[in-house]
Structures are given as structure tokens and as C-alpha cells.
Design goal:
The chain is mostly beta strands. It has one domain. The chain is 9% helix and 42% strand. It is built from two helices and 16 strands. The strands form four sheets. Strands 2, 4, 7, 8, 10, 11 and 12 form a seven-stranded mixed beta sheet that branches. Strands 3, 5, 6 and 9 form a four-stranded antiparallel beta sheet that branches. Helix 1 packs across helix 2. The N terminus is likely disordered.
């Protein structure tokens, strides 16, 4: 049976995000109990990514959440490749990996930055720049990346999917993604600094994978 996996690559921003998408890509999302898997930390577009450069940021949070609690998962970074997380879940149910890195700064010349804002549906930022008379100035941004990925282990589900991991930006499903059927909708809550965000721009992509099990 054909499976559709929705990955959420969430970028925590202070202005508009010029950075590429950033996500956690496991080998599989459906696992047997105690089955080993690798999770790649990737950056790119349209889920065509490259391994994230470890030297350009510091990890603020890398944690594993389950119905039995939370543990720091930094030690699960591969010794040979820091863009790989080595995981193994001994208990059946949902398991959540959350990753948040430190602030990064970028600057882009004015024309390219303004074009990007319009292309990405961030016209309100372009309008604000125009209002302040700085449309001809370079665009500057400080941002961090907040990403999560959810597993189903041993054929079981539980309430782990709705845990608030405490990252600056949280996208929390109201329903368990692994119980959603074709044609049904899913509701997500957006939090910034643990406060609800009204009117947030949210983009979603999906990846069709013929074999996830």
C-alpha cells in the first residue's frame, strides 16, 4: 500500500527566513521495537538535501520524548558524522526527536532579499521595509531552526505527538498524525516563545514513499 509521509521542517525566525528548509530525515518512520535507525540532519529544498554543516552552529536542544519521559539525545550523534543521529527505541509507541540550534545571522543584498520576500508570501515584511524607507538596504536576519520528527514503533501510538518540547517555535498536532486517514484533516497549534501565534504563515510539503515499513 502506498504511504504518504508528511515531514515538518519548521524554521524559528525573527524576520523573514532566507535560509533553505531544514529537517530530520530518518531511514524509516515505522520501526520495530529496538530496531536501529539513522536520522540525517539535512538542509535543502523540496526534500532534496545535503547534510547540515556541523561547524556552523551549536546545538541548543537534541532530545528524545516518549511516554516514559524525556532524555538528552546529544550522545546519539554519530562519532563519525555529526549530521547523523543514531536511534533505537526499546518501547512500543510514538517517539519524538526534537532538535534546535543556536542563532545564525545572514545578510542579502536588497533586490534579492525583496524578491525572496514576495516569492515566499512574506509581502508584509516587504511592505514594512518600504514603509520604513529601507527597501534599498540589504536584508538582515537572525534565525534559529526548530525541527521535530515523529516515529511509530512496534505498531503502537500514544499521546507523545502532542508534547510541547519547549523550543522557541512549536508546531503541535491536535490529532495523532499516525491515526489520520485519507481525506481527513489535521489541526496544528503554532506557538512562539510558548505563546499562540495568530495568522502565522505555515507552509507544508509532503513526500510520497512507496515503502515505509
Amino acid at each position: 500500500m502506498r504511504k504518504i509521509t508528511l515531514l515538518a521542517a519548521i524554521i524559528c525566525i525573527s524576520a523573514a527566513a532566507f535560509a533553505h528548509e531544514f529537517w530530520l530525515q530518518p531511514l524509516k518512520f515505522w520501526l520495530k521495537t529496538n530496531e536501529a535507525t539513522n536520522i540525517s540532519i539535512l538542509v535543502g529544498e523540496d526534500y532534496q538535501g545535503e547534510k547540515s554543516d556541523w561547524s556552523k552552529y551549536k546545538i541548543q536542544q537534541l532530545k528524545h520524548y516518549s511516554k516514559t519521559g524525556v532524555e538528552d539525545y546529544t550522545s546519539h550523534l554519530s562519532a563519525a558524522d555529526k549530521s547523523i543521529i543514531e536511534a533505537r527505541f526499546p518501547k512500543a509507541g510514538n517517539h519524538l526527536i526534537a532538535f534546535n540550534n543556536s542563532n545564525k545571522f545572514i545578510e542579502l543584498e536588497a533586490a534579492k532579499f525583496n524578491e525572496y520576500l514576495e516569492t515566499e508570501g512574506l509581502g508584509y515584511i516587504a511592505a514594512l521595509r518600504k514603509e520604513k524607507g529601507i527597501s534599498d538596504k540589504p536584508g538582515r536576519e537572525v534565525y534559529q531552526r526548530c525541527v521535530k520528527t515523529l516515529f511509530k514503533v512496534g505498531g503502537k501510538t500514544d499521546s507523545t505527538f502532542k508534547i510541547n518540547t519547549g523550543m522557541r517555535l512549536e508546531l503541535i498536532p491536535r490529532q495523532n498524525p499516525y491515526t489520520i486517514k485519507d481525506g481527513e484533516t489535521i489541526t496544528m497549534q503554532v506557538l512562539f516563545d510558548n505563546q499562540p501565534v495568530k495568522g502565522a504563515l505555515v507552509l507544508a510539503w509532503n513526500v510520497v514513499n512507496e515503502k515505509q515499513r
